[in-house]
Amino acid sequence: MADNPTKKLILNLFEMNCVSHITHGLWRLPGNNRHRYTDITYWTELARITEDGGFDAIFIADVVGAYDVFRGGPDDALRLGLQIPNNDPMLVVPAMAAVADNVGFGVTFSTSYEPPFAFARRMSTLDHLTSGRIGWNIVTSYLPNAARNFGLTGEIPHDTRFAIAEEYLDVLYKLWEGSWDDDAVIRDVERGIYTDPAKVRYIDHVGEHFQVAGPHLSEPSRQRTPVLFQATASPAGIRQAGKHAEAVFTGVRGESGITPLVGRFREAARANGRPGDALKVIVQAAVIVGRTDAEVADKLDVYRRSASTVGRYVHASLPFDPTAHPGDITVAEALRREGVAEGAVPPAALGQSIEAFTASAATDLERDFFAAGTPGAVADEIERWLDELGIDGINLRQYHSFDTVRDFVDLVVPELRRRGRVRESYAPGETLRDRLTGAGDRLPPTHPAAAYRGGHGLLAGSAALLEGARR
Predict the structure, then answer these.
(1) Domain assignment present for 226
(2) What is the CA radius of gyration of the chain?
(3) Model confidence pLDDT, tens digit, residues 95-133
(4) What are the contacts of 87-90 at 24+ separation with CB within 8 A?
(5) Distance of alpha carbon 34 from its chain centroid, rounded?
(6) Which CATH number is 120's domain given?
(7) In 377-391, which positions are buried (b, 16+ CB within 10 angstroms) versus exposed (e)?
């Protein structure tokens, strides 16, 4: 059915170093391994499974705060294991890289709370240890509790968060691309010189939010700058992604919105002097596959019955508790009783809203990019997403670890390979960037980071930032 059989699917597994990521309540299912997230063998087993299936990367989400808006505290999140407890996404990467030679890794890290210098070294270290298979999902953080964890009384205003992120990226580019020349490390045994000092420099960044002297502590890695992912769909996020991102992870309610959104990403890239296709568009996708339709229906029924409605309330940071009020009052009245600003609320009675929300807790498992069926039917749907809706890839969400990914590898991948959508094998030694873009290990000249190569523009960049801050 495909018009473009050569368009390959970017295939990532969506993960998080916690018990309950986005399919709340399902960790209780028989045989689910989510509780093993603290065991390193969970991650090494996962790496082997995804590599057997030809996945491009394991994409690891993260938050640095608890969901504590619903019912005024973290109790429900703790009871449900909803992204708490939650461990660092970066620390499991070396173990996975040690047992899987090809699959890549995308880790989430926020620009809002920790200074850029130490993060630059951690990412360079991962790029070295994975031989160029690391990517960074750029986020600015949104949970109120995250702000309080880092000494603030409340969330950083939206525009300020994005301004901080812009300068944060500028500092990182100077460290990753401008501080060391490609040939700085000479390893001259006879003269006893490991690094030529003339080819390493301070960056001397002075800006509105950061002052960083440098030099970068790590020698150049294969990619230097990790593959840059950005999770966004907001106007500000689209503008920033158009300048910086190589791949965007985005979500929309309903398929009708994705094609215009893809167009806005392409336009944003072109507005920044980059090719429109410089941004790969990746969506969250849910797949339930079985050998028969009856098997698929049974799985879907189990998942729907096990979904947690309270988990949806918690994850949505609902500012009031619908279960604490009689069903015949309106949502607005419930908000007034709890002393919460009304904002825009539906006029329906609270009981109707609870009923709708309860139903949506189950259907949220299959919203947006969702395919359920036998392998051929699932492959047909994925091809439609690629060819008709214009996406480039998926982050596969998990209902069950490891059944979801094993089902996909065993049943869907062979069909996608038969249709030329997933590689038969990896190119030996390729970096994550070269795999996703086909343009080599390093960022292209059209990317703003490239301007700092060879130490060019380091002081000029700081002067421009200071001038902008004065205005």
Answers:
(1) yes
(2) 23
(3) 999 999 999 999 999 999 999 999 999 999 999 999 999
(4) 87/17, 87/18, 87/37, 87/38, 88/17, 88/62, 89/16, 89/17, 89/60, 89/61, 89/62, 90/122, 90/126
(5) 19
(6) 3.20.20.30
(7) ebbbbbbebbeebbb
Task: Return the structure tokens found at 248.
Answer: 């965007």
Residue 396 is given by DSSP the state E
Q: Does residue 356 sit within a domain?
A: no
Total tally of structural domains belonging to the chain: 1
Residue 359 lies in a domain: no
* Interval 191-230: pLDDT, tens: 999 999 999 999 999 999 999 999 999 999 999 999 999 9
pTM as predicted: 0.91
Helices (H) and strands (E) in the chain, counts: 17, 13
Is 340 buried (19+), middle (13-18) or exposed (0-12) by CB count in 10 A?
middle
For 50, counting Cβ atoms within 10 Å of its Cβ (0-12 exposed, 13-18 middle, 19+ buried), the class is: buried
Measured distance CA(282)–CA(10) in Å, rounded? 8
CA–CA separation, 380 and 143 (whole Å): 38
18 DSSP β-pair partners: 86
CA distance 1 to 126: 40
Alpha-carbon 382 to chain mean position:
20
Q: How far apart are CA 223 and CA 104, in angstroms?
A: 13
Question: Which domain, by its residues, includes 264?
Answer: 10-303+366-470
C-alpha span between 84 and 18 (Å, rounded):
7
**Distance from C-alpha of 111 to C-alpha of 168, rounded to nearest angstrom:** 7
Strands 193-195 and 185-188: antiparallel
Check whether the bond before 402 is cis (ω within 30° of 0). Answer: yes
